[in-house]
């Protein structure tokens, strides 16, 4: 008998289609194509990935696409922040000191700024001030 590492229901893979809004293209014209690509990816995953108990991995696809100003990328490194810039996302850089788990790491802060972060915070200790800035 195979034992599963999961207690209760098995996790699902979530797919949220994203449209690149940089080029000023008509977004609505890309909705169907983008959603079709998400459906193809979900089918590919569901048909080829299995849990240790033999069950197929399920995917959940969001029913709308996002892009540009609707997209917030949060990251503590230059790769994800540059990628967010490719999609015209608002980029929030986290310059936390990973050894202390709080406060800023000034070297990381410099890398995040060079990568194009729109906002940089040292950690999540002041969420009450951050959320209004993000419109949340």
Explain how this protein is built.
By secondary structure, the protein is an alpha/beta fold. The strands form 2 sheets. Strands 3-4-5 form a 3-stranded parallel beta sheet, with helices on one face. It has a two-stranded parallel sheet with strand order 1-2. The radius of gyration is 19 Å and the shape is globular. It starts with 12 loop residues before the first strand and ends with a helix.
Give the secondary structure arrangement, pairings included:
Blueprint (H helix, E strand, L loop, with lengths): L12 E3 L12 H21 L10 E3 L10 E4 L2 H9 L3 E5 L11 H9 L4 E3 L5 H7 L3
Parallel strand pairs: 1-2, 3-4, 4-5
Compact overview of the structure:
The protein is an alpha/beta fold and 136 residues long.
Query: What is the CATH C level class of the largest domain, in words?
Result: Alpha Beta
Question: How many H/I helices?
Answer: 4
* CATH-defined architecture of the largest domain: 3-Layer(aba) Sandwich
Element-by-element helix/strand order:
EHEEHEHEH
The description of the largest β-sheet is:
3 strands, parallel
